[in-house]
Amino acid sequence: MTDKLIIFDTTLRDGEQSPGASMTRDEKLRIARQLERLKVDVIEAGFAASSNGDFECVKSIAEVIKDSIICSLARANDRDISRAAEALKPANAGRLHLFLATSALHMEKKLRMTPDQVFEQAKLSVRFARNLMADIEFSPEDGYRSDPDFLCRVIEAVINEGATTINVPDTVGYAIPELYGNFIKNLRERIPNSDKAVWSVHCHNDLGMAVANSLAGVKIGGARQVECTINGLGERAGNCSLEEVVMAVKTRKDYFDLELGIDTQQILAASRLVSQTTGFVVQPNKAVVGANAFAHASGIHQDGVLKARDTYEIMRAEDVGWSANKIVLGKLSGRNAFKQRLQELGVAMESETDINNAFIKFKDLADRKSEIFDEDILALVSDESVTHSNEQYGFVSLSQHSETGERPQACVVFTVAGKEVKGQSDGNGPVDASLKAIETHVKSGAEMVLYSVNAISGSTESQGEVTVRLQNSGRVVNGVGSDPDIVVASAKAYLSALNKLQSKADRVAAQG
Ligand code: KIV
Ligand code: ZN
């Protein structure tokens, strides 16, 4: 019988730890819904005890997502564990993920604990957790750099206490595939009760080997759970990338012989959503989800693919959600056609009001842009003003003048708590002038730490998608805006970021 490989997504926890990738509760909920459509087995929704905001995020996700197991990280102490269990109460299926460092370096320098103290704390924390929930994962942090004898002692004890999953993190991305695979194999062989738990891999990408190490942990080590993130998002060089690990196991089923529950056609939508939300752009040559991942530029390759697709293609673009840039709708399309296309694209709108708002924006866009692609629709629905008509700031209109040799001028009309105001300013360029025009009223004092523009469907006729990252009093937020006019897209992105900075609900959720 073929084994199943469990896909544990930690985009919303480990991924969010990446500086600048903080997400609001609504953004996390939107991503969680997409992860559910992708059919990931476990969603690590956050670290409930780390802040009230994270607690609320885990709780909201546990309330809404019903098909995936919802997990919260917790340090191995009673307070963290109780808080995580509380946040997970509404879940159909919940998991507590306990971690405690076991490497000599971490125990001595970070925890200032002896190995015996760590051993006792690991045991007692799992015992405590097991009284609250049946599904318990234990991670010896910095496990790969831990003394194997000590690790065997700790893991055997926590399995005896009822841990159901044992995760072996390569916390600092130090592993080499063959060595990591054998490390896990040896632990499983040496620990007498190792067959009572599912073994899991968790690899960071500091040396660019997170995916390779995870796959070696599966193939050589016998692990049956991989912890990963969409687009490989994560601290420093990131985590193991979900799309790469999933497509490797699917494409090379001949080698891995493992089953997956993932609906791979939802991969691209997940990648785009995470990229749009965090402002972390996907590099064009990124495997599976990069813009060039299925593009054949050389004549020899194009000729080969036209004659027989498998000459140069090992996966089908459609299988991961790519479809040819087709014109899906135009300005004569009606509300029903629009609603149906949203469904085909896997976009779940919560209310008829949201659909109506999105349809109005679609009509507005179709008036200005003759061809509307799937990418345009996805950008349109990720625009927060569609689903949040009651935001503090809302874009109304913009005019600007720029001419070679003259300083650009901009005038922006926008709403503040529903009331229209007008700001005017000059600037180094039209974008700078527009954002300064907004600031003449808002006076946020925020520092811009990122500004990026991306052409949604690849040509100058496409919409520009702008990401603005603002920082204020230690909080970092991302705003995204799209429009055929990139100056307007910039103003929308800026207002969206300002909305997040001032929102009380989000204040607790953001980093810092
Ligand atoms: O990298 C790591 O060690 C972690 C643990 C908390 C699992 O993220
Ligand atoms: Zn990690």
Describe the 3D structure:
- This protein folds into 3 domains: 3-278, Alpha-Beta Barrel (TIM Barrel); 335-382, no CATH class; 386-502, Double Stranded RNA Binding Domain.
- The chain contains 19 helices and 18 strands.
- It has helices spanning 25-38, 52-64, 78-87, 104-111, 115-130, 148-160, 177-190, 210-219, 242-251, 253-256, 267-278, 299-307, 335-344, 352-368, 374-382, 384-387, 430-442, 486-502, 504-507; strands spanning 3-4, 6-9, 42-46, 69-75, 94-101, 136-141, 165-170, 198-203, 225-228, 258-259, 327-329, 372-373, 393-401, 409-416, 419-426, 447-455, 464-472, 475-483.
- The model is unreliable at 505-512 (pLDDT under 50).
- Bound molecules: 3-methyl-2-oxobutanoic acid and zinc ion.
- Zinc ion binds next to loops.
* End-to-end Cα distance: 48 Å
Strand content range: 15-25%
**Structure annotation, total helices:** 19
Helix content: 40-55%
Q: Please identify the structural class as seen in this structure.
A: alpha/beta
Q: Quickly name the level 1 CATH class of the largest domain.
A: Alpha Beta
* Named CATH topology of the largest domain: TIM Barrel
Named at the architecture level, the CATH assignment of the largest domain is Alpha-Beta Barrel
Specify the biggest β-sheet: 8 strands, parallel, barrel
Number of strands: 18
Q: Order of strands in the sheet with the most strands?
A: 2-3-4-5-6-7-8-9
